[in-house]
Specification:
Structural class: alpha+beta
Largest sheet: 3 strands, antiparallel
Number of helices: 7
Order of helices and strands: HHHEHHEEHH
Number of strands: 3
Radius of gyration: 20 Å
Shape: globular
Strand order of the largest sheet: 1-2-3
Helix content: 25-40%
């Protein structure tokens, strides 16, 4: 709040676009700060990506067409791990035991766990 501004005037200001949440890589990389964080990340866990985002990520991270297939129309538990300059494709099938019921993000499966 600036000198002479009332709290009500501050509340009427338009929202700052940098405070929005998105999964869209195009939106994220529009911010230079986020682009810097992305470029300096040593670890990335990537799951299924939309077509436009895949192309951007392939260029940014030097992902081969074969590696890109792990994030193209992929199933649950499939993707790519990036650690430094190493890219590891993975297919992770968890048995649906008690650990799975604790970890799942599917609402219909969490109600079964209770």
């Amino acid at each position: 709040m600036k000198m002479g501004e009332s709290p009500r005037e501050v509340d009427k200001k338009p929202p700052d676009n940098n405070n929005q949440i998105t999964q869209n890589i195009k939106d994220l990389l529009a911010s230079r700060e986020i682009e810097n964080i992305f470029e300096n990340s040593d670890f990335i866990y990537m799951l299924n990506q939309a077509s436009g985002d895949r192309q951007i990520l392939a260029k940014q991270l030097n992902i081969s067409p074969t590696q890109l297939s792990y994030v193209t129309n992929s199933n649950e538990g499939e993707g790519l791990l990036f650690y430094g300059n190493v890219i590891i494709p993975f297919v992770d099938r968890f048995p649906k035991n008690s650990l799975y019921k604790i970890m799942t993000t599917r609402l219909e499966e969490t109600s079964e766990a209770e």
